[in-house]
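Changelog-adjacent note: as of this version, every example in the card shows the full chain rather than a window. The one below runs 362 residues end to end.
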Amino acid sequence: MNKTLIVFGTRPELIKLIPIFIELKKQGLEKQYLSIFTGQHVELTQGLFEEFDFKPDLRIPLSNERNSIGLSFSAMLTALQEIVYAVQENTKIKMIVAQGDTTTCACAAFCAFINEIPFAHVEAGLRTHTIKSPFPEEYFRRIISLSSSIHFAPTEGAVKNLLQEGVKSEHIYLSGNTVVDTIELMKRKHRNTTEGIRNTILITCHRRENQNGNFHDLVKTIKLLAETHPSLNFIWIAHKTPFVRNELATNDFDSYPSIFISPPLPLSEMYRLYSISKLIITDSGGIQEEACSFSLPVIVIRDTTERLESLELGYSILAQNASDDLIVKFNQVLNSNEQVMLNPYGDGKSAERIVNFLQSNF
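Full-length structure tokens:
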């Protein structure tokens, strides 16, 4: 039996691939697919494995104490190549599938290319058109596209980006974003979770371009906002990145009783937190997408964003980390009327479309 390899390594990748694994099981296709976990996010993914009772078929024992992209890529590529050799001893690899714009996805795409194996890219076509923003994701997106046989685009805007880069339309499939599938799965699974009073401001910040003076400015601004808005709670989710963890640990928040530093939360708890939040301050791309399912406005602390749909619909707004700009944007969003958001990212059926397409065409 021919095999298709599905490669993932980070928490966001697993969140967006879980619906595909569930759909494969629903259709009785698990034996045709081999799931490979690269270990890029070991601690952050464990809760998701337990939440969905899912175990990858293979694990790569990745170690990267230096937080080096180059070392991660080289170690991952070596391990993936060995897996390809081992699988090909007994069967043919029909395709390699990966999601997003991470080191894991870029490595899987490169491995597919050099072994002349078709590659399917889930969440294809996102672009800021600024090669180092975000870094290294925008660069990865472009080289992944060069390796792809099929591009599963989440939105019409992503389709347009790919067409402008010369990708033929027959290699592009508008699937929607599987994150909406996951949110719908979680809402059905945790029906008893009730919404509370929306008096929480949720904060996350982890991108490499913000691991500098930008982060220090953000800390100062959040402290100022906590002083001027004493009725609000500010919950800052501390990313596992060493820089973020160290910065938040060494900053003095003791005199700010409404600022709470939290470790990364299980997915169900994160979604419950969305339901009681008034707005989000973040540099995360995935959160910009997820927020729409909770009618939650987002302030994006970046120079650019590839999630233009949220921006164009007014669901998110760009702001600098510098106090003046962020405070102006914060008050602007805080004082705006709440709105029910029409989700531009999907309808909860993206995984079914992707699996059906793969089965029909490959």
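Structural remarks: The chain has a mean pLDDT of 92.
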